[in-house]
């Protein structure tokens, strides 16, 4: 039966709540208000089809962004999703550039004597293509001081907020594709925007999104070069007990960060330790745990006469002291005479007290290989690290 009288206060609140929860259509080259939003919520941009990561022919692209730091080339291909705060500051720009093969992130002040753009941050699409090519949505999760950008269920970036007001109020959607054929667009011509909490997701999806930003970090430096090691879960369809450790490289203070090695078979939330020394070339050792809680070693040797070699033999930690799954790993290098070094990996309890120290070993290659030399005490039992 139709409602003939005015709505009561409770009915008005209920109607407003239902309207806020309803996905809103965000048309191409338009802006849209974001429904009721608080820190900790997720903004979802949903396409009618999965992403097309193949750039269209050059003639189908045109420049629509006239206020960038640099003018776009004629054949550039951009799809931009922007989030604005209450004073029209662009607090997050997600720019998918298929022609360049990058995902770019930036912000822009609403009032500035110059262009207003901040420093651009980028990652390569190739690092995530296998996962995001099956996605039909982009999620932006507000973590308070930063945004977690998620394509499908794959976290591709964390963008630190640059403005005091970091609450999204409006969203925009733009593309340089001029052709009307929908197949050439990255997403559908119109997308749908909705807002929800992490708790609204199924337990499986919630766990995947949450676990991607809980990582141990290890860093090493020599001369002007820096290597950073951190843990991610790049594919929601992988073994849920196994993450990967990734390497970021910075060759000099002015050089951009670049992706390096990807190390497989790391236990979820594993501690990470890394050491480096120079002796007839660069030697790097990275220590972490595999899903069976065995210590593993990733080796990179760039000596003049040898290439880069990787070994993953394992020592068992589960028979010694406290729970190894909660124990931070550490390592140090001690230089000896005759060009040899001692590498001393150890793991610690929750109070950072050393529970067990793996015996110091002298070797110019992997300390976990079968042909190592033990310099003091007895070595731990070796385990086959294959597989």
UniProtKB/TrEMBL annotation:
Record GO terms (molecular function): carbohydrate binding
Give the Gene3D superfamilies listed for this entry.
2.60.120.200, Fucose-specific lectin
Its name, as the record gives it, is Galectin domain-containing protein
Signal peptide bounds: none
Which residue range or ranges hold the Galectin domain? 51-199
Q: Which InterPro entries match?
A: Galectin_CRD
Name the source's superkingdom.
Eukaryota
**Organism taxonomic ancestry:** Eukaryota, Fungi, Dikarya, Basidiomycota, Agaricomycotina
């Amino acid at each position: 039966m139709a409602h003939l009288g005015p709505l009561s206060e409770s009915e008005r609140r209920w109607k407003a709540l239902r309207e806020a929860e309803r996905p809103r259509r965000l048309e191409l080259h338009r802006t849209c208000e974001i429904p009721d939003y608080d820190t900790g919520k997720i903004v979802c941009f949903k396409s009618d089809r999965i992403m097309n990561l193949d750039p269209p022919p050059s003639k189908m692209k045109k420049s629509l962004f006239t206020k960038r730091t640099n003018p776009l080339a004629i054949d550039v291909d951009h799809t931009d999703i922007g989030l604005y705060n209450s004073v029209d500051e662009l607090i997050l720009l997600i720019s998918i550039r298929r022609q360049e093969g990058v995902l770019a992130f930036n912000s822009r002040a609403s009032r500035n004597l110059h262009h207003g753009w901040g420093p651009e941050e980028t990652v390569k699409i190739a690092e995530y293509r296998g996962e995001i090519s099956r996605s039909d949505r982009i999620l932006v999760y507000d973590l308070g001081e930063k945004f977690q950008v998620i394509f499908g269920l794959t976290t591709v970036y964390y963008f630190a907020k640059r403005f005091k007001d970091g609450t999204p109020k409006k969203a925009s959607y733009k593309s340089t594709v001029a052709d009307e054929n929908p197949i050439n667009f990255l997403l559908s011509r119109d997308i749908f925007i909705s807002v929800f909490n992490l708790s609204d997701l199924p337990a499986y999806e919630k766990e995947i999104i949450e676990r991607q930003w809980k990582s141990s970090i290890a860093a090493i430096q020599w001369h002007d070069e820096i290597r950073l090691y951190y843990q991610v879960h790049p594919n929601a369809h992988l073994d849920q007990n196994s993450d990967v450790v990734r390497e970021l490289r910075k060759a000099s203070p002015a050089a951009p960060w670049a992706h390096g090695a990807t190390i497989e078979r790391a236990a979820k939330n594993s501690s990470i330790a890394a050491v480096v020394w120079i002796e007839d070339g660069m030697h790097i050792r990275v220590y972490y745990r595999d899903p069976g809680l065995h210590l593993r070693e990733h080796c990179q040797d760039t000596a003049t006469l040898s290439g880069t070699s990787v070994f993953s033999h394992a020592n068992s930690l589960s028979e010694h002291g406290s729970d190894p799954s909660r124990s931070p790993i550490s390592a140090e290098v001690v230089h000896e005479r005759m060009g040899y070094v001692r590498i001393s990996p150890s793991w610690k309890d929750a109070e950072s007290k050393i529970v067990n120290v793996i015996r110091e070993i002298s070797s110019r290659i992997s300390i976990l290989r079968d042909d190592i030399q033990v310099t003091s005490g007895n070595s731990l039992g070796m385990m086959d690290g294959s597989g």
